[in-house]
Amino acid sequence: MSQSPTIRTDRLILRKPDASDLDAVLAFFQSERAEYVGGPYTLGKAWRQFAAEVGHWDLLGYGMWSVTTKDTGETLGLVGPWTPADWPETEIGWFMFENAEGKGYAFEAAQAAVNHAYETLGWDTAVSYIDKDNTRSIALAERLGASFDPNAPQPKPDMPCLVYRHPRPASQSETIQ
């Protein structure tokens, strides 16, 4: 198991989620914005989903980071490695809150997460599982250089999704502390 690093990019801090993120994450999971990650959820299911995000770190030593701004510390979303026990491959996942849209934060955070997965965690491959109707996430995956892989195994065969495969980064662009 690895340490839970904090990653700093030009504008962002990616850190292990904690209780200070709870209200923002619960609001996201209970909103229509969560439609592409199985929501909107009830309060109880939203709470349990956030607990799973936090617990992923304790079980595996890594997970999705809370993405915050360097200047204000505002939580913008969650981005990072996500590998539940029944996932067929290692995933880079993301969801951003409404206040973060259109500013390039998702790209900046996801790029750092892909770099970390390959260069620090030593992954051989990384995919992103994306709902076929989630045009924003498809565009982000493609901007990151990921390619649609129609032959990749599905994480939930009864709920097919698009699988985008991330290339190995040319060089590391994150600062780990």
UniProtKB/TrEMBL annotation:
GO molecular function per UniProt: acyltransferase activity, transferring groups other than amino-acyl groups
Occurrences of domain N-acetyltransferase (ranges): 12-169
PROSITE patterns reported for this sequence: GNAT
Any Pfam family: Acetyltransf_3
Protein origin, superkingdom: Bacteria
Region feature (Disordered): 147-177
Coiled coil: none
Protein name: N-acetyltransferase domain-containing protein
Species per Swiss-Prot/TrEMBL record: Cognatishimia activa
Taxonomic lineage of the native organism: Bacteria, Pseudomonadati, Pseudomonadota, Alphaproteobacteria, Rhodobacterales
